[in-house]
């Protein structure tokens, strides 16, 4: 087990719905990440939080809204999504936000937008 | 735009075969190279983090080498077993002031058959 959990594992939502993805890490890490993997594409970084502060927004549309209330929890709030936002959303954490630090991933949330 | 290329895209081998895959990345401003193993429906699992030119790392039957001057890394699996079936991802970290930002390749999907 990686110590990073994500809920829900699967989510189907309409374009007018509002939903949230939750990530929790039990590793005592200080940095947390959201990634997106669309079909046939590589993992793509969305957001980075370091000590609860957002340090990276990789030009993500505002219909994705992250929240990091503490170093152990990370949320991704979703509203008015488009069908092309259907993808696997992965959360990860690392001890520090350093390039040589291993990132530990959760199992992901498979999102389908209808 | 950083390009991280992995080849081959997919690979079928027989149990007991040894195999290797390639990860190519930009050779300028290199900071770190990560390898991950990702089984279907599970979390990506870290294999290696490599930072120095000429690095060789080993974990059981899996090993990796790094050439930062020419921008490539090889992952080797000796005596493949069915449980090695997974997608193997590499991720490149560039030396910037922005902390731990990884650019992933699309992965090599390995299938080990009995």
Could you explain how this protein is built, in words?
The complex is a heterodimer of chains A (about 110) and B (about 110). Chain A is built from no helices and 11 strands. Chain A has about 110 residues and is an all-beta fold. In chain A, the strands form 2 sheets. In chain A, strands 2, 4, 5, 6, 9, 10 and 11 form a 7-stranded mixed β-sheet that branches. In chain A, strands 1-3-8-7 form a 4-stranded antiparallel β-sheet, with no helix packed on it. In chain A, a hairpin with a 2-residue loop joins strand 5 and strand 6 (about 55). The radius of gyration of chain A is 13 Å and the shape is globular. Chain B has about 110 residues and is mainly beta. Chain B has no helices and 11 strands. In chain B, the strands form 2 sheets. In chain B, strands 2, 4, 5, 9, 10 and 11 form a 6-stranded mixed β-sheet that branches. Chain B has a 5-stranded antiparallel β-sheet with strand order 1-3-8-7-6, with no helix packed on it. Chain B is globular, with a radius of gyration of 14 Å. Chain B starts with a strand and ends with a strand. The chains are: A mainly beta (about 110), B mainly beta (about 110).
Q: What is the gyration radius of chain A calculated from CA atoms?
A: 13 Å
The number of strands of chain A is 11
Residue stretches of chain A low in confidence (pLDDT < 50, at least 5 long) are none
Helix and strand run of chain B = EEEEEEEEEEE
Q: Mind describing the biggest β-sheet of chain A?
A: 7 strands, mixed
Largest sheet of chain B: 6 strands, mixed
What's this model, at a glance?
By secondary structure, chain A is an all-beta fold.
Distinctive features:
heterodimer, A: 114 residues, mainly beta, seven-stranded mixed sheet, four-stranded antiparallel sheet, 0% helix, 56% strand, globular, B: 114 residues, six-stranded mixed sheet, five-stranded antiparallel sheet
């Amino acid at each position: 087990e990686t110590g990073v959990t994500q809920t829900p594992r699967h989510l189907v939502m309409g374009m007018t719905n509002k939903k949230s993805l939750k990530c929790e890490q039990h590793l005592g890490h200080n940095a947390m990440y959201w990634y997106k993997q669309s079909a046939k594409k590589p993992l793509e970084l969305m957001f980075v939080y370091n000590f609860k502060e957002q340090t990276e927004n990789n030009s993500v549309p505002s219909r994705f809204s992250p929240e990091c209330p503490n170093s152990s929890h990370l949320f991704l709030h979703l509203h008015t999504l488009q069908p092309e936002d259907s993808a696997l959303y992965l959360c990860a954490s690392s001890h520090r936000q350093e390039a040589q630090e291993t990132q530990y991933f959760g199992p992901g949330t498979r999102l389908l937008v209808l | 735009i950083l390009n991280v290329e992995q080849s081959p895209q997919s690979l079928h081998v027989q149990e007991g075969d040894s195999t290797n895959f390639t990860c190519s990345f930009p050779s300028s401003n290199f900071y770190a190279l990560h390898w991950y193993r990702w089984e279907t429906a599970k979390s990506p699992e870290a294999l290696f983090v490599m930072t120095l030119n000429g690095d060789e790392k080993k974990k059981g039957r899996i090993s990796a080498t790094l050439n930062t001057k020419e921008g490539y890394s090889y992952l080797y699996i000796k005596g493949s077993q069915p449980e090695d079936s997974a997608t193997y991802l590499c991720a490149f970290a560039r030396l910037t002031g922005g902390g731990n930002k990884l650019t992933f390749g699309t992965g090599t999907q390995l299938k080990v058959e009995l």
